[in-house]
Amino acid sequence: MQSLTMLAFERGYFLRREAVELGVDDRSLTRGVRHGQLVRIRQGAYCPADLWRDLSEEDRHLARAHASHDLLEGVAALSHISALAEYGCPLWHAPFERVHLTRIDGGSSRIEAGVVHHRGGLSYEDVIERNGRLLTAPTRSLLDALTQLDTPSGIVAGDWMLNQGLTTLDQLWAAKNSMVRWPGMLSTEVVVRFLDGDSQSVGESLERHLLWRLHLPRPVLQYRVYDRRGRLIGITDFAWPEHGVYGEFDGRVKYGRLLKPGQDPGEVVFAEKRREDLIRSATDGIMVRHTWADLHPRSEPSRKLVELLRGGIAA
Fold first, then answer.
1. Where do the H-state alpha helices sit in 55-165?
2. Are residues 110 and 83 both part of a single domain?
3. Between the CA atoms of 56, 62, 68 and 72, what dihedral angle is there, to the nearest 10 degrees?
């Protein structure tokens, strides 16, 4: 079983046929599942239970998608949210229960063993090979996925795909216009109109959606602030420069990214505070720091944030 365990740690699963080739029979696999040592992630594919517990929802979905692709009879491309997971796209509250494949071999549309087989028209440009697998190209993958995701989840995915250079707004609009009569495409227009590749985190994308829902003006993203000598002081996540309001999304993770080898976290926090003070001084504006708690419109932090922003923008 050691070879199978190593294989599972490399890719998140091993196949029944690989176990049989190594002399592990079905009774041993069944016993492993019954005793809690293995998890059957789908028919014909297994993962050590301790590894499976440590995987995120997205990584579990990707393992099932890869296993389903390996076990497929016929030719298909990973598509929809399964393709986005392959690209490494953050999937915020996505429906991970089912794997999505789009048939290339003319196979029928159906749902079978947790796999949705789509029968969509794919052109040559719509399919690529990545990491030895066929999957739908980024633009097609995102548009397909937007028919499954709610608005904030779609914005998170779309912003990331744009930020990574995997697609462009021009490509999205061109592809969308060619798929306008496809089921679910009408609802994707709201998301595509909202996308902005300058968003650099899940939190920033979600906050833009929150601000829109609360009828606040659309902010400028990654706004560069200079001092009187023209030196760059800092870049704010959000800004309403005409109103003198500047914002930062504090997802806590950002301090880890800013931390240099051997540097104390307190030094980073102090440097961030000094940067904010310099921005205030240079702009005569106000700085607003947002957190995850502010992303829920009905929460107390959110109400205080909105009052502060509206007060600054109206001033």
1. 57-71, 80-87, 138-146, 151-163
2. yes
3. 180
Q: In angstroms, rounded to a whole number, what is the distance separating the alpha carbons of residues 204 and 104? A: 37
CATH number of 31's domain: 1.10.10
Q: State which residues form the domain around 17.
A: 2-54
Cβ-contact 220, 240 below 8 angstroms: yes
End-to-end Cα spacing for the chain: 68
- Give bridge partners of residue 77 from the DSSP assignment: 102
Are 181 and 62 in the same domain? yes
Q: In what order do the strands lie in the sheet with 245-249?
A: 220-226, 232-240, 245-249, 286-290
- Summarised one tens digit per residue, pLDDT across range 63-108 is 999 999 999 988 999 999 999 999 999 999 999 999 999 999 887 8
Distance (Å, whole) CA 243 – CA 309: 10
